[in-house]
Amino acid sequence: MLLKIVSFFLPWPLRRRWLNRLFGFEIHPAARIGLAWVFPGKLIMKAGASIGHFTVAIHLDQISMGAHSGIGRGNWITGLSTKCNNRHQHFGHQPTRKAALDVGEYAFITKNHHIDCTNLITIGRFATIAGYQSQLLTHSIDLFENRQHSAPIHIGEYTFVGTNAVILGGCNLPPYSVLGAKSLLNKPYTEPWKLYGGVPATMLSDIPKEAKYFSRSDGFVV
Fold first, then answer.
1. Domain holding 136: CATH number?
2. DSSP string, 183-218
3. S-S: 169 plus which of 29, 102, 148, 151, CB 3.0-4.6 Å?
4. What's this model's pTM, rounded to 2 decimal places?
5. What is the reported pLDDT for 91?
6. Contact 138, 119 (CB under 8 A)
7. Is residue 111 part of a domain?
């Protein structure tokens, strides 16, 4: 813990080298972490990846960020590391569970979201978790078996998740699709080029393939 606290106050170039050497992280020289408490079991950040100020990322096995991907300010990213399996009874029936976050190249998580990585969350390339206060929740209580259970979440490439959405474990948002603001995604969908929305979310309409968001070669949106 003392080493983590010391690293927090180091200038970024020195801090990056410190994190790589002492914690076994793989942070590219062109990647950057702000004033954030980011200590998963393993951290991989490719060139141009960034994590903003006041984000907390703890108690998960791994965070992997592709080139030019980003996690904005004030996000809470947590889970239950599989290294805790011997100390907790939770999820003992899921020996292959992986508590991890995988963010594809040019994908971006904006700010003030809650990302529960008790199980794997993958966010495809050029996807956006937009707005504020969305929740991605991979675990809950199985009422029939009276135990905690988890399931992965997959967010496809070139997707857009509107503000204040809730996505539950086991869900899939197909590539080239949109989840509307304040929607609840509680089951997997497979059809791309669709707008999904509502509580619970259903397929609402087609998305024109001419929409320029879905053909970007740069993650930045002016």
1. 2.160.10.10
2. -EE-S----SSEEEETTTTEEEEE--TT-GGGG-SS
3. 151
4. 0.95
5. 92
6. yes
7. yes
